[in-house]
Amino acid sequence: MSQTCPVCHSSRCATKKTVSKYTIWECRDCGLFWVPGVGEAELADFYSSAYFSGSQEFGYGDYLKTEKVQRLNAVNLLGTIANHSRANGGLAKSKLLDVGCAYGFLVDEACKAGAEAEGVDYSESASRYAQTVLGRKVTLGNLHAINFPAEHFDAVTSVGSIEHLNDPVAMVEEIARITKPGGLFVVTTLNTKSLIRIFRFKPPEHLYYFSHRSLALLLESKGFAVESVKAYLANHALGEAVGLLLKALFGPRINIKPLIERMPWKQMNLPLPNNEMLMVARKR
Fold it and tell me: By C-alpha distance, which of 100, 119, 104 is closest to 74?
């Protein structure tokens, strides 16, 4: 069965490889890799509480234990938004949406900075934590189903989440609809053309694999103008960083948790080079 590239619409596409039951396709024009045919119900099942607790192959070791570093990264990203903002006061009194907000740390930090912030996420356990523990407005489920008003948000973020979606093209189109003219869309995701090209195809966790070129093509096709793109130098707990590297290199072949637990310096937070990019785009 042939495929057309969902980003550049090229027909020059071919299968790259098969991982488990999932077929990865490659566009030979824009370089996108993607996994078609993964449904909403499968994604909802996949992003259970186990995804954030280290009890399955994919996902985080223990997301809540890395709250400090997650918040540090959130504050840095909010600083990027403030630097690009055209509004007096930057974040203060702006309306912000975090798509794929997990436990809501970025939403919480944005609210503390004076923004009117909310989030949306697939994970029931993560959304409930943001709602009940942090007291923030987070909606469980699909962005389209919420049906936000048109031109409602001053800024929308997608931090390490666009690669998890089964239809990021439709998501970007919806974000363009709900973003005010002149508003910002801030995205972080794996860059397949980064200087550090160590990555593993991980369906159904990651379904889309962008380069800076293919991501810019997608955003620009939906009404955004890309203002900047650079390597995303995120902070990591050192133990988490070692775990991510070992997973990328060896996959499930080794049990990394006991090794990380023995590291006396595992909670050190460092900005580490990785294979991710940070793209800032403005609604035309």
Answer: 104
CA nearest to 108, candidates 80, 73, 84: 73
As a CATH number, domain 39-283 is: 3.40.50.150
What torsion, rounded to 10 degrees, do the Cα atoms 63, 134, 93, 188 define? 10
Q: Where are the domains of the chain?
A: 39-283
As given in the structure block, the two tokens for residue 77 are 């990203």
Nearest CA to 1 out of 21, 15, 16 is that of 15
Give pLDDT tens digits for 9-55: 999 999 999 998 999 999 999 999 999 999 988 887 787 656 766 55
The 10s digit of each residue's pLDDT in 150-172 is 999 999 999 999 999 999 999 99
CA angle 146, 150, 156 (to 5 degrees): 70
Rounded to two decimals, the pTM is 0.86
User: How many DSSP H helices and E strands does the chain contain?
Assistant: 9, 13
